[in-house]
Specification:
Length: 279
């Protein structure tokens, strides 16, 4: 009887961060003390609650338009989570399919896909993302597509190498001997064996997607300036870093914790699912 692998401490930490992000994103209307878009110029640039002129109704104060900082930070988790899940899924799907074809079939398919990966990866990723979003237009859809178009190569290279290694093993030869077609052997034998690697890559890509979305928000190429995003909060906070340093520090801390959590989840899953590392 097969037993489920025992998760490491890193995996549990990563799962806790992911669960916290999901809860904050889904429960934002109940967790946020104010409407993140509500402006109150009479309460603009309020300091934090522990300052002399602060108020506990706005624990970390307000921005220059009187919008509550905590509420905008909480709602900023929504686009981060959407981009992380959707961007990593699309990039993983495209890269995995092409990597499987290149690694298992070889020949012309491998040569063409490998050259495409080399050419695509020669472009600076951030610059390419900015160009793609500028061409497609702003919005979450454009950001997700840009991430998928850029980062499919990351999956493709790793999956190709692992597929080539798996294809040389005896179990694949046995599958072919008993009559399975090459496609069936690829999907029913090879793909399940590289699934733990794909899961690890997926969690790492989620962290990368969060950073890319923050960069695009920072330069104004993600959502509209009114919509709360962590990158947008950083862009606003840098202008008033001496007066309200928490406006800059809080979204940076949220991004750092999220990315480190995803990385810990990826490393933990690799240690838990890889039979070699579990020895």
């Amino acid at each position: 009887m097969l037993r489920a692998p025992r998760l490491t401490a890193r995996a549990w930490i990563g799962l806790a961060v992911l669960a916290m992000l999901v809860i904050v994103a889904l429960a934002a209307p109940w967790l946020a003390p104010h409407d993140p878009l509500e402006q109150d110029l009479l309460a603009a640039s309020l300091p934090s609650a522990w300052a002399t002129d602060g108020a506990w109704s706005h624990p970390f104060g307000t921005d220059t338009l009187g919008r509550d900082i905590v509420s905008r930070l909480i709602y900023g988790a929504r686009p981060a989570l959407i981009v992380a899940l959707a961007g990593a899924s699309l990039a993983g799907l495209a890269g995995t399919l092409l990597g499987l074809l290149a690694g298992f079939y070889g020949g012309i398919a491998d040569a063409l896909i490998s050259r495409a990966v080399d050419v695509w990866m020669s472009f600076p990723a951030v610059l390419l993302a900015i160009v793609l979003v500028a061409v497609m237009g702003t919005g979450l859809t454009a950001v997700v597509l840009a991430i998928a178009i850029i980062d499919w190569t990351r999956f493709c290279r790793v999956v190709r190498a692992e597929t080539q290694a798996q294809a040389r093993l005896d179990y694949v030869t046995s599958a072919r001997v008993i009559g399975l077609s090459r496609m069936h052997a690829l999907m029913r034998e090879v793909l399940p064996n590289i699934a733990p690697l794909l899961l690890t890559l997926f969690t790492l890509e989620m962290g990368i997607a969060v950073v890319v979305e923050a960069i695009l928000s920072f330069v104004g190429l993600s959502l509209s300036s009114d919509t709360p995003t962590w990158g947008g909060l950083i862009q606003e906070g840098r202008l008033y870093v001496h007066q309200t340093p928490w406006l800059l520090g809080l979204p940076i801390a949220a991004i750092v914790v999220t990315v480190l959590g995803f990385n810990a989840l990826g490393d933990g899953l690799r240690e838990s699912l890889d039979p070699v590392l579990r020895r």
